[in-house]
Amino acid sequence: QVQLVESGGGLVQPGGSLRLSCAASGFIFRTFMMSWYRQVPGKERELVASITQHSGTTNYADSVKGRFSISRDNAKSTLYLQMNSLKVEDTAVYYCNTWGATKSWGQGTQVTVSS
User: Fold this and answer.
1) CA 92 to centroid of chain Cα atoms
2) Could you report the average pLDDT of every consecutive run of 10 residues in the chain (115 residues)?
3) How far apart are CA 67 and CA 76, in angstroms?
4) What does each C-alpha distance from 3 to 28, 30, 59 come to in angstroms?
C-alpha cells in the first residue's frame, strides 16, 4: 500500500524557514524522480521542485528558485524541502509525490506564512 506522509509545516513569519519531510512507503522510492507540490484553496496544485533518483539534478519553480532546496535520503525513503526566506505567497498545503504525480496523494502539510 502506497503511503506518502508529509510533515514539518506550521506557522512562520515572513523571512523565516521551515523544513518539510515526506516519508514514502509501498513503492521503491529510490527508483522514482520525486517532487514537491503545493496548493492554495481554489487554485490548481502547483509543481514546486523536483529531484532525480540519485539527487543528480534538481529543478524549481521560478517563484521559489534560490529560496527552496529539495533533497532526498533513499536509505530512509524520505524526501525533504528546505524553505528559506519564506513569503506570504508561499502559504499553501504542501504535498510530495513522484514527478508526474503517479501515486495517491497524502494529506499534505499546511504552511502558513504570516506576521
Assistant:
1) 11
2) 97 98 97 98 96 93 98 98 98 96 95 97
3) 25
4) 12, 15, 24
Residues, the chain = 115
Among the listed residues 99, 113, 102, 79, the one whose alpha carbon sits nearest the alpha carbon of residue 35: 99
Query: Tens of pLDDT along 56-75?
Result: 899 999 999 999 999 999 99
As a whole number of angstroms, the distance between CA 53 and CA 50 comes to 10
Beta strands in 10-75 (DSSP E): 10-12, 18-25, 34-39, 46-51, 58-60, 68-73
How far is it, in rounded angstroms, from Cα 57 to Cα 71?
A: 10
